[in-house]
Protein 1
Amino acid sequence: MSIFVDENTKVIVQGLTGGQGRFHGLRNRDYGTKVVGGVTPGKGGTDVDGIPVFNSVKEAVAATGATASFVSVPPKFASAAILEAAEGGITFIVCITEGIPAHDEAVTYNRLKKEFPDVRLLGPNCPGIISPGKCNIGITSGDIALPGGPVGIVSRSGTLTYQALHELSQQGIGQTTCVGIGGDPVPGTNFIDCLEAFQNDPETKAVMMIGEIGGSEEERAAEWIKANMTKPVVSYIAGVTAPPGRKMGHAGAIISGSKGTAQAKMDALRDAGVHVCQNPTEAGQKMVDIVRSL
Amino acid sequence: MDLFEYQGKQYFARFDIPVSPGDIADTVDEAVAIAERIGYPVVVKAQVKVGGRGKAGGIQLADNADQVRQHATNILGMDIKGHIVHRVWIERSSDIAKEYYCSFTLDRPNKVHLGMLSAQGGVEIEVVAEEDPSAIAMLSIDPVVGLDLATATKWVADAQLDEEARAQAADILVKLYRCYTDGDCDLAEINPLILTPQGKVHALDAKVTLDENASYRHPEWDAFRATETEDPREKMAKEKGLNYIGLDGTVGIIANGAGLAMSTLDVVNQVGGSAANFLDIGGGANADVMAAALEVINADPKVKAIFVNIFGGITRVDEVAKGVLGALEKVTITSPIVLRLDGTNAVEGRAILQPHLSATLITEPTMLDAARRAVSFANA
């Protein structure tokens, strides 16, 4: 099984007629994802390489029965697009947009929570989700993932997600689902949401968790793992050598004072029984060893 | 982006938050002119983005023009923890009866806003939080609902601010919250917020961090950006549109993606080296971006080796390879370059580089191998 999406998930792309939306939307379709429509206000009735475009999410959902949306619109319009998706009946929203103001994210997150409690937002500023061989929503390159499980991956970083997939796939270890939760300060989906879903997924036998400096999500995940997780977890935290007080690319990747350091996160995870590794390669190898011994 | 105190006060003023009358001076003569205009006594305050100005002698009281001249002369050019003082803020000195603390920031675990208010201001709030956490009244604010005057009024009472300060403080808190939200701040902090013996409440300091993702809707921020004094390497990188942070080591780093770039720093460190920088070239690394990245790193005299770590996802490795070759035509690179290329079109990318490989242009199959090779060059 996979988490959050599967081979039957019907996806619309908000911003399909834009450069990024078109590129990734078509790649997702080529991978086998059921990309059933696009949304661009004012361009309803047209199509992108055979995919029908609608003026609104509501129209797209009515015509296609889509339940998931891939939001690929500029930061200025992203919050409105996310809320439109929820209002239009979408229950799983993937937003890859980078550069959304933190205050907009905070308002959007809390509005979703209150007005649409059943809607899950992944991102913003994330690479998306891939369930190898079934569904790929976002910017992950499908050919580095391997179908068949048994590993679930959850990651805060884009390129490190690819690195993790690559480390496993090249040794013949497949993945059930790989979720990039993104590096922004207000992520719609966090580590715990994914860990819980992997814990409940019978096909997932082990989980790889890639974190990075900043915030306290990894520490909270460690607490959750300690109390609830029975499957083995391998972890790598990026940013051991990052200087305090500087934003390392992601808005969320910043060490403030003594909080959010890689060391604190690694200590918390180790204390929860997680296999903490020093680099992505070591983490990949550790996971290979665990899977082979299952 | 962190603001200087004077910029924070200028920003506060846009939201009607009361501050002491004052102005900013680049020179001693300007400092004296401002003091003459606003009236004595004045405070001469060093403008640096680092704490501990007072202890370093960067904040001085002056009763007349001679004293202003003397203090401004001493403070301008002063080095405070590695930060050189280029400007001084001159403001009317305030009599202080009480010092409070207040701030707004994002409570990331709970995904709401967090207001902190304390009757114990003027000291580091981290110390108060450590020694007497009950002295800080925390308020969780739903971003959808916001902060209204009724809630702020109850909050100032909960925090046990002095009775005579409460109404003004509540009003200031509502305004500061507006500054924080409408002003797109990551942090808006007043420490201290003072009560004068005359019963007036106003901000004596200002600490503001702006969310650069929101800069598209704040043209007024351009003025703040112009005064950013930074590492010359970072300035050059910013002009070229690169996400660069200067560090002290000898291995120059170029990677795609923030996470991979951070991880590259870690791996270089693990194999006995030290990174000269963090540089994320992001997606779509074409020849121009790669040339700019190599140019910035090449300009750093401490760099002894360059490690290019690319994992092609959307970024295609063949494009990166072309970029490196294109860059080498444009820029003369003095340090050896070690490349690790993986992911989308990696085979094609390596093939493009193959005829050009040499003792100083090397590819390695894995991230660890490449890190070891780069570090061996740097430590040689």
Protein 2
Amino acid sequence: MFFGFSKKVVSLLVAVLVAAAGCRAPEPRPFGKPRVLATTTVVADLVRQVAGDRAEVECLMAPGIDPHSYRPTPADADRLARADLVVASGLQLEGRLAALLERLGTRRPVLAVGDRLPRERLLPVTDDLFDPHVWFDAGLWSLCPPLVAEALAGIDPAGAPEYHARAAAHAAALATLDGAVRGRIATIPQQRRVLVTAHDAFRYFGRAYGIEVVGVQGTSTESEAGLHDVNRLVDLLVSRGIPAVFVETSVADRNVAALIEGARSRGQAVVIGGRLYSDSLGEPGSGADTLAAALTANVETIVAALHDGGR
Amino acid sequence: MTAPWLSAMTAPNTLVAAGGVAAVGFAAGVVGSLALLRKRPLVGDAAAHATLAGVAGGFLATGRRDLPTLLAGAFVAALAALGVLVLIRRFTRTRDDAATGIVIGVSFGLGIALVSGLPRWGLAGSGGLEQFLLGHAAAITGRDAAVLAGVSLAAVLVVAAAVKEITLVAFDAAFAAAGGWPVDWIDALVAALVAAMVVAGLPAVGAVLVTALVVIPPVAARLWTDRVAAMLMLAGLFGLVAAVVGTLVSATRPGLATGPLVVLSAATIFAVSLVVVPRRRQEGS
């Protein structure tokens, strides 16, 4: 009897010990450094440029991922909840993440940079919905670093001067880039200054740099191009002698294959001008892992294909 | 200057897509008639819902996403789903329709999980597989259309070669079995043909709607005739007309999806048949 009782006690003790081991103290946070979670690679680059080494910047979506159709997992919700600051692209780019971000915003600082840009400089899609792909207009995007600096200063007041200084430098670099891109695009013959892509993510780019942008798909990757749209595009390619179309790293390219074939059957040789970075930057080390590098890479791809492709 | 709707209908991309879809529509009508005569019209539905998982599987297994590879994957998955259906039917007391419901739900769930999951698990190039959910006729190239036409022709030739045996089994399976016919194998052949046509219908019509291609034209044709050969031809013709009309109309305006228009054209043929064919005939059949 005594023996049996002690066995019970032992097993109870074991159970308590196991339970205690299970609920460890929460993971210690690196001291001092604020943790910032950016949603897309583009926004992560923006935050890194402004934060420098003062903050730990993580990116929710890996390179190559389409933010329109990104579905948050419970693990993502956890990462979002543990960040000191969340920076999103906004303007409904993160379609399925938006509701989560909104709820999070009541408890934690959340900055959606696109939502803070002046309305009159945005391109409307419908009455109260704007095209979210603002980053390839370097001039417009140069308004974002100060917003990020302000948000970072909110969670790390001691670093405010550093953040603001770096934001000003980054904004100036973007302004310089803006001028350089405009100059490069202007070298393409006017007639052929048309950018046909699989996904209409370049409207701001087109407006800023004077190149007509025509998408095979709508603004969101989720709307399908029908036969009508493909026929209309074939007409355009043939009538204006456009030698190249572009696919993007994060969007399917079967549509583009059909487009090229249609134009070829009407005597217009069209090639795939190369891959453009759109909703996602390149992998680290790809040479396009910052916005400036990706934009420059895109511009060189476009100029090379539209300039020389037709000869 | 031709009317814009006419030039849209005769544009190269439209004609290529219409050609491929027309071949599929014809063969799907013919093959679907056999399934209908065998009183198993929903075989196609079970096969169709499994194809999405097969498309994703084909991509995962090969890393390629050209149409023949993806469709081969879809065909394997469709056959697997039908195999599971046969096993459930044979080894459990589950009713036929309940078994079909299980297979549809599970295989479709698997397909959606894969197709929506792959892009965000960071698999490069896995975007665009969801096009097979609702179909995407605008992406059909000349080579794709040739593949679809080839599959359709093969299916029709198989039907032409085996129509006598299939009809016998369809009308009196017990008699055929007593006469020494391999009823199970003939049933399997019909199921495989249906699976092949469902798969061929994917690029234009998509996994959700493609069942309509193997069900509606045969049902409409059945209203018109009691003769098997006539029914097969008529169902094929209805399928072809629905495919061509749906594809051409979808090219006239932006925002018109091809798959749904093909299905609606087929439904229109069925509705007209209901009105035009004398009621006495319909009741007698």
